[in-house]
Amino acid sequence: MEVRLLDIPELCLRLRVSRSTVEGLLRRGVLPSLRIGRSRRVRLDQLVNWIQEQQAAEEQSNPAAVEAEVRDADSATA
Questions:
Q1: Distance (Å, whole) CA 15 – CA 1
Q2: Is 12:18 a contact under the CB 8 Å cutoff?
Q3: Cβ neighbours of residue 40 under 8 Å, at least 6 residues apart?
Q4: What is the per-residue pLDDT across 6-63, written as a single tens digit (0 to 9) for each?
């Protein structure tokens, strides 16, 4: 099984955030990563799991807001 490793520019594109945001997440250990030499890499499968955990935590903390977002998205596509 091949493990896909993402570098910082790839993380920025996938998360649609700035480089400084990604670097902060990595520096604080919020986003799971590994060090290869002086570089940080994130496994794609760990990124997917992390995103799912973030979504679940947000849904638990504010279910009404999540339901409103789903309704808004549904009405925009209808």
A1: 24
A2: yes
A3: 7, 8, 26, 33, 34
A4: 999 999 999 999 999 999 999 999 999 999 999 999 999 999 999 999 999 888 887 6
Please name which of 11, 35, 13, 38 lies closest in space to residue 22, comparing C-alpha atoms: 11
- Supply the Cα-derived Rg of the chain in whole angstroms: 15
Cβ pair 64, 78 in contact under 8 A = no
Domain boundaries, the chain: 5-71
How many CB atoms neighbour CB 29 within 10 A?
Answer: 8
Q: What is the number of alpha carbons within 13 Å of residue 19 lying toward its C-beta?
A: 4
